[in-house]
Amino acid sequence: MAITAPSRRLALAALPAAALLAFGLMAAASTGARADDGPPGITTQTVFPPFNPDAPACKPPPGLTKVLAFAQDNEREFMQGVDHGLAMAAKDRGLEYQKALANNDAAKMVEQVQLLLAAKVGAVVAAPVDPASLAHSLQEVMWSGGYVSTIVPPPAIELLNAPQYETGKRLADLAATYINEKLGGKANVVLLTQDQIEFLAPRFKAFRDVMKTLPGVTIVADITPNPVNKEGGFATMNTILQAHPDVDVVLGADTVVLGALAALEAAGKARPDQFLGGIDGEPEAVSEIKKGDGPYKASVALSSPVFGYALGQHAADWLEGKSIPQGTDILPTVLTSENLAQYEKDLADPAAVYKDAARRDAYLKMYGNICYDTRDQYVNFPWSSEYKP
């Protein structure tokens, strides 16, 4: 019997992308409006044209400090990469840089953003612990003229996302090829998901869609670790192994798959012919891939120092009155032992990537235009480049 997540999570993952986006909109709308609210932003699904770097500038926001702040949810390696990129961009552009670490405490993050608002901080990048509770505080920063970027959920002046279905499909396709070529087309598969986050659900739908095309695959577990970190992955995998001691493939975010690897090793169930693969390109996952002869075969990187540096540059541009993107895609990069050297070089020096148009375009794709004068057109819907009307 397969181990599954709660039925609501599975039902959510089965929805098409448009329905998921609508679900997010309804959740946001249910919070209601306040008498002192400013403009609601763009609240309906919109397809933005490619970013125009030559768009006219407008006036810079008045009365704000030249400070870039990162409202950081936790200290996982992916977010440390964002912090690294932001700090480097702030230094290069002469901005003061601050980090407000919430340690997964949603109320604390709201309080921290309110303090940034009171201090008239000019730019805030947020990785929300709880998007719904943080949304109004971020809107207040934007209504005051400040730059706000968020990593995945709205609202934001500039919303950063990834093509989530494509990201999941890249990893699942690698696993499918491995199953066919190395495992004779048969495999017991574990999917470690995050279906409770509607913005990420398409990547796990892609996992399932690809695995369904392989008649010899049995999905023995499809479950969200709690918490979604290395410890949660370890505990979840231990539970799975009690019912299904022979696992061939594990897919999920790097942080939980690394925990699953630790559980397999502790149980004496790790094998060189297994395929463990993750998403995010976390340094520990990269180290495992480098070994070349272990179970960890691949990671699909969403290169956080590179996009962190780009967001920091856009924040500085905003404070100078320049036009910046409304939406930015961080493009998935498949990491294997063959291409790790160049990838690590890029992560160490995201400034060089940003300055080189060809290298930058391999990581980032930008859409729409917005500046201080048009700030009422901020993104207040779950934007995705994969949305098709």
Task: Tag the structure with descriptive keywords.
seven-stranded mixed β-sheet; 389 residues; 14 helices; alpha/beta; Rossmann fold
What do these coordinates show?
The protein is of the alpha/beta class and 389 residues long. It has two domains: 49-162 and 304-330 and 357-377, Response regulator (Rossmann fold, 3-Layer(aba) Sandwich); 164-301, Rossmann fold, CATH 3.40.50. 43% of the residues lie in helices and 18% in strands. It has 14 helices and 14 strands. The protein has helices at residues 7-14, 17-29, 77-93, 106-118, 131-143, 164-182, 201-211, 230-243, 254-266, 283-291, 304-319, 340-348, 350-355, 357-363, and strands at 3-4, 65-72, 96-101, 121-126, 147-151, 158-161, 187-192, 217-223, 249-253, 275-279, 296-301, 327-330, 333-335, 364-367. The chain has a seven-stranded mixed beta sheet with strand order 1-8-7-9-10-11-13, with helices on both faces. A seven-stranded mixed beta sheet has the order 3-2-4-5-6-12-14, with helices on both faces. Helix 9 links the parallel strand 9 (249-253) and strand 10 (275-279). The longest helix is centred in the middle third of the chain and has 19 residues, at 164-182. It is elongated, with a radius of gyration of 21 Å. The chain starts with a strand and ends in a 22-residue tail after the last strand.
Task: Compile the SSE list and pairings.
Layout: E1 3-4, H1 7-14, H2 17-29, E2 65-72, H3 77-93, E3 96-101, H4 106-118, E4 121-126, H5 131-143, E5 147-151, E6 158-161, H6 164-182, E7 187-192, H7 201-211, E8 217-223, H8 230-243, E9 249-253, H9 254-266, E10 275-279, H10 283-291, E11 296-301, H11 304-319, E12 327-330, E13 333-335, H12 340-348, H13 350-355, H14 357-363, E14 364-367
Parallel strand pairs: 1-8, 2-3, 2-4, 4-5, 5-6, 6-12, 7-8, 7-9, 9-10, 10-11
Antiparallel strand pairs: 11-13, 12-14
